[in-house]
Amino acid sequence: MPATVVVGTQWGDEGKGKFTDLVAKEMHMVVRYQGGHNAGHTLVVNGETFALQLVPSGILYDHITPVIGNGVVVDPRVLLEELDMLSSKGVDTSLLKVSGNAHLILPYHQEIDRVTERYLGKNKIGTTKRGIGPAYADKASRVGLRVQDLLDPKIFRQKLDVVVKEKNAILAKVYNQLPQSADDIAEQYLGECRERIEPMITDTVNLVHEALELDHHVLLEGAQATFLDLDHGTYPYVTSSNPVAGGACVGAGIGPRFITRVIGIAKAYVTRVGSGPFPTELFDEVGDLLVERGGEYGTNTGRRRRPGWFDAVMLRHAVRLNSLSEVALTKLDVLDTLDTVKVCVAYEIDGTRIEHLPYHQSDLHKAKPIYEQLPGWGEDLSEATERHHLPSRARDYIAFLEAQVGVPISLVGVGPGREQFLHFAA
Ligand code: GDP
Ligand code: IMO
Ligand code: MG
Predict the structure, then answer these.
(1) Is 41 a residue of the active site?
(2) What would the pLDDT profile of 296-338 be if each residue is shown by its tens digit?
(3) Staple 308 to which of 93, 108, 261, 281, CB 3.0 to 4.6 Å?
(4) Neighbouring residues of 118: CB distance < 8 A, sequence distance ≥ 6
């Protein structure tokens, strides 16, 4: 009956896709538990790159049942495009199940996301403009349409008419935009789209529990990350769901006692896309080097990711928020050419040294990182497959992070490929 959670520990793009794929090998089922196609999870298998947005990262194995859980927001058109892309690459997608309780992202969500960001001007969140926030807002306001509504076109249309009327009033009166047509939306979603999605719609809570009762191992795949969490992240510069490990229970429909392992994915440095505080952000040539060597451009939106040094203060907080049992450290190879590497071990706020994340966000905006400096290793790590292949200074760096963070670093990524990792735990 064990379940494992994979969760991002920073601001996203830590390499959750790669490590979910890796861990999935030993699992029976992989469930995405929140977010939508704001996620971009990249897997590189036999030189071929797969960029996944909605489909769980276990899809590449034939033995895995991939599940989109109730906590996800689904744009069915994007889902079908993704499935077509996978099929064209020879991936069998026939086992995918989608929760009937997952909420739909509809065209007006995307439009509202776009105009709200414009309205916010310099205070914008920097969202992916995928309609994520507006779709979750409708869920909380109890006017959302769910995947199961596709099963009943009459109900779908009734709900749509009510909500489109309200959205059009807002679009016209607040944002001076043209109205959306309920007829067009119904035509788009209730035609071929509905026909193709219908066989995938499932009571996924039941499915997950049947698997757990058979002692099958279930992997719960988070999107986004701890500091983009609606409750625990750097609000308002966050996403509109709960990526933290606790969100996995809600978004998959299981209780916490099933979860026996929580793997936090952390990059050997930090990146962030969009607005918001970032104490260790780099604006110099080291930052440029991290972006270029790390290929730090959004999988989805192509935006340059903001780079910075590893922040142990954040990671210690992520350990608490998620009950991390271990950390998988990714992209160590990106640091290969640096003479020195820095780790933020504490913040200075108004002249005081603080070793934990400040409670008041104004303090986080003022936080100056206090760094420890370690020597670089100046060697190519991309071929390392075992702990002893790493130069001692790279091992020292990992050991230093481990001591700072307080949980074992079990896996280390040294390249984007499925095989480019090593077990670090002694
Ligand atoms: P996710 O959103 O957390 O799944 O991460 P993304 O896929 O958005 O971004 C991570 C990027 O780093 C992808 O391009 C991966 O192929 C790549 N990647 C993952 N692990 C490693 C690693 O250990 N080393 C290097 N160089 N690249 C990696
Ligand atoms: P993965 O799963 C990095 C960021 C956006 C923006 C904020 C809110 O690939 O790690 P949203 O569209 O969710 O309302 O945007 O969250 N963001 C991500 N940043 N990786 C992601 O996903 C992200 N998903 C959302 O850039 O700052
Ligand atoms: Mg990503």
Answers:
(1) yes
(2) 998 888 899 999 999 999 999 999 999 999 999 999 999 999 9
(3) 281
(4) 124
